[in-house]
Amino acid sequence: MNNENDRLPWKKWEDYEKEIISDREYARIGNRLYTRHAVERSYPASIGGRSIAPAFIEEVVRTGTVRKVVVGRIERKIHTSGTVQIVTEDDGNIVVTVNPFSGGKKQ
C-alpha cells in the first residue's frame, strides 16, 4: 500500500464528514464515498464489523480483479482480492458494501 492509503481514517459512521447526493447520505473517506452499510461492515470485529480497514478497501478497489453486474438497472463493480469483495457504484466512486468470504463460489 502507498502512504496515502495508510492515512485513510478508520472511524465510526458518526465521525466521518458526510455528503448528500440525490437524498442519500454518504461518508467521505479519502477520494470515495461510502454508504453507511459499507462503513459499518468495515468496523473492527470487536464492534461488530468485518475488520476491513479503509486502506485495505482502497487497495482492493485499485488492484483487485473486477466483475461488472447490474442491480436494478444500476451498474456495480465487484472488486475481489484474496477473501475480500468490495462492491462499488458510480464507476468505483461509491463503496456500497464490504464482503469477506471464506472461499468457494464467489458471488
Shape: globular
Biggest sheet record: 7 strands, mixed
Order of the strands making up the biggest sheet: 1-2-3-7-6-5-4
Quickly count the domains. 1
**Strand-pairing-aware structural class:** alpha+beta
What is the helical fraction, as a range of percent? 10-25%
Tally of helical runs: 3
End-to-end distance: 26 Å
Order of helices and strands: HEEEHHEEEE
Mean pLDDT rating: 91
Present the secondary structure layout.
Blueprint: H1 3-6, E1 18-21, E2 24-29, E3 32-34, H2 36-42, H3 54-63, E4 65-71, E5 74-81, E6 84-89, E7 94-100
Parallel strand pairs: 3-7
Antiparallel strand pairs: 1-2, 2-3, 4-5, 5-6, 6-7
Description:
The chain has 107 residues and is an alpha+beta fold. It has one domain (3-100). The protein is 20% helix and 38% strand. It contains three helices and seven strands; from the N terminus they run H-E-E-E-H-H-E-E-E-E. It has helices at residues 3-6, 36-42, 54-63; strands spanning 18-21, 24-29, 32-34, 65-71, 74-81, 84-89, 94-100. A seven-stranded mixed β-sheet has the order 1-2-3-7-6-5-4. The longest helix has 10 residues, at 54-63. The two termini are 26 Å apart.
Descriptive labels:
single chain; 107 residues; alpha+beta; 3 helices
Briefly characterize the structure:
By secondary structure, the protein is of the alpha+beta class. The protein has helices at residues 3-6, 36-42, 54-63, and strands spanning 18-21, 24-29, 32-34, 65-71, 74-81, 84-89, 94-100.
